[in-house]
Amino acid sequence: MTSPALLPVATTPPGPPLPPGVLAACDGSDGSLWALHRAMAEAERFQLPLYLLGVVDPAPGGYPPGLAELVQESTERLTAGMADGLRRAVGTVERARDRPFAGPLSLHVALGQVVDVLLAATPGQHTLVLGTRGNGGFSRLLLGSVSTAAAHHAACPVLLVPAPPAGE
């Protein structure tokens, strides 16, 4: 396994669909790290590639006409930050596992609305693995909005990974 700091990151929109594998979404939250841990185990168990996807929504409310060009540099910084976050997530989880991931792993950063990007990536995949809650602000919800949407609309099976019991 290559050092997480050296892992290349593909920026999307992707070309043809990825071959079947385990798709994990990561936003840097504890929930997404627990999900990545489980996704690594699933991919190893089924001997499938692991695709780690980070999504950047540079304009949650959209851009007024003419502003898109002005925020290009900001979008590039957000994308680079997400790529770095994905690399750090892999390193963090591998240290928690006490061993590197044993299969093919690719990192992907996509621009767009999180739910739309995730759902578009699910056709043909073996499993989508998500934490039950990410970095959103509604911790009182049993499931986050992204995991709820994925559970209802993904084109592949969805594995929702809850937080581990306190003390683990």
TL;DR of this structure?
Helices cover 36% and strands 18% of the residues. The protein is of the alpha/beta class and 168 residues long. Helix 3 (114-121) packs parallel to helix 4.
Write the layout of secondary structure elements.
Elements: E1 9-11, E2 22-25, H1 30-46, E3 50-56, H2 72-97, E4 105-111, H3 114-121, E5 127-131, H4 145-153, E6 158-161
Parallel strand pairs: 1-4, 2-3, 2-5, 3-4, 5-6
Molecular structure report:
This protein is of the alpha/beta class and 168 residues long. The protein has one domain (9-60, 70-161): Rossmann fold, CATH 3.40.50. Helices cover 36% and strands 18% of the residues. The protein has helices spanning 30-46, 72-97, 114-121, 145-153; strands at residues 9-11, 22-25, 50-56, 105-111, 127-131, 158-161. It has a six-stranded parallel beta sheet, sandwiched between helices. Strand 2 (22-25), helix 1 and strand 3 form a beta-alpha-beta unit. Helix 1 (30-46) crosses helix 2 and helix 3 runs parallel beside helix 4. The chain starts with 8 loop residues before the first strand and ends in a 7-residue tail after the last strand. Mean pLDDT is 82; it is low at 137-141.
